[in-house]
Amino acid sequence: MNHVATFFALTLFVSSFSCIAAPKPAALFSEHAVLQQGKPVPVWGTANPGENIRVSWRDVSAETITGDDARWRVILPALPSGQSADLIIAGDDSTLTIPDVIAGDVWLCSGQSNMVWHVNQAEGGRDDAKTANFPALRHFKVTRAKSPTPLTELEGEWQVASPKTVRGWSAVAFYFGRALLQQRGGTPVGLINTAWSGTDIEAWISSESIDTSPAGPAVRARWRELATDYPARAQKHKTDFAAWEKARAEAEVAGTLANFKQRKPRAPVGPGSSSEPSVIFNGEIHPLIPYALAGMIWYQGENNTPRSSEYAALQRSLIRDWRARWDSPSLPFLYVQLPNYAASRTNRLAPAGQPFAMNKPASCPNPRPAWPSPSTSASLARSIRSKSVKSANALPCSPAPLPAVKKMCRPARVCSTPSLTQKTQGSD
């Protein structure tokens, strides 16, 4: 009797590893998702090896057979924009119905804290959130993930724009998406947000593209040095942090905490950092590929200020890298140049001879001929006196880049905003 029970238990145990309960799509294909209109749409996920998969949305469908690696992928024909419908994924023995999936224009929104900055932190953001009832505007926040090797899965969820949801959205992404929605006759807009504060551009570029970039040798050499001296810097930080904690505690006991001005020591950059080359590309960008997109928007640069001479080459590498990964050489890529904030601090933040625009195409007198055809959104002309580039006034949350986007989104049409030809730095 015991032998029979043991055999039965082992059979169940083995079956649990050899069988996936039902077809499972990637996290992007979930309730409230936006699929790209007007072009073929890849849909992928996992199921039992050899299982037949049929994916349908409205009156379009595609079929495939799950591979030996338990992965499947279909490509839906070009979708028309319009009202939402169920995305249906059927296997041999089960069917998954994903409600409220709509087709429109999908934009990837990436960068550092400039892109992270929330709607409720922007000037007028709280008031704008109160009226943000836009069922056709949706946002997918990718859960932060970094990895030394490329990942294939990610986590996150789609949200529909409402007064409750948009307060925590990226302000740049929200205002960009809202303007697109209004200027393009209500065509649905999906925003995929992968932004991560305090990150260097090299964290967003694949290892292969860093190695082929003109700035690659300098990037590799710097990170080798950071790894070598990291133990000593980590020990110093431990000592400095203990001293800071002690001083702060003493100020609290003495009742002078309000006047305590010592800055908390920053942890040293080194192995495991979110700015380490390729780690965010591996964790957040690679799992998105090949989700169909209308384009990409990018707002980053401050973290690379000390090495601004490398930035143009690295950004070129990033643009070419991402476009190649999506197999779309002319995929629109919009980048924001940093606003002209804190004029009195310009000399400290920007090296001599460099304009204060950390998205460094502007560091070249006329970079456009060699540039991989992105469209730019220049915000330098907005002269602001502020302590933070992310302050409400400094944030370029207006629809300023939209004239370029409006033209770019026409069939077979790519355009660009003006590019820098010369600069003059003054005291005013």
What helical percentage do the residues reach?
Answer: 25-40%
* Sheet having the most strands: 11 strands, mixed
* Structure summary, number of beta strands: 14
Helix/strand order, N-terminal first: HEEEEEEEEHHEEHEHHHEHEHEH
- Estimate the mean pLDDT confidence: 81
Q: In percent, how much strand structure appears in the residues?
A: 15-25%
Uncertain residue segments = 4-18, 342-371, 380-401, 406-416
Query: What is the radius of gyration computed over CA atoms, rounded to a whole number of angstroms?
Result: 24 Å
**What's the N-to-C terminus distance?**
91 Å
- Helical/strand content category: alpha/beta
Quickly count the helices: 10
Shape: globular
Describe the secondary-structure layout:
Elements: H1 2-18, E1 24-25, E2 34-36, E3 41-46, E4 52-57, E5 60-65, E6 71-76, E7 85-90, E8 95-111, H2 113-116, H3 125-130, E9 134-142, E10 156-161, H4 171-183, E11 189-193, H5 207-212, H6 216-254, H7 279-285, E12 295-299, H8 311-325, E13 333-336, H9 346-349, E14 375-377, H10 402-408
Parallel strand pairs: 2-8, 8-11, 8-12, 9-11, 12-13, 13-14
Antiparallel strand pairs: 1-3, 3-6, 4-5, 4-7, 7-8, 9-10
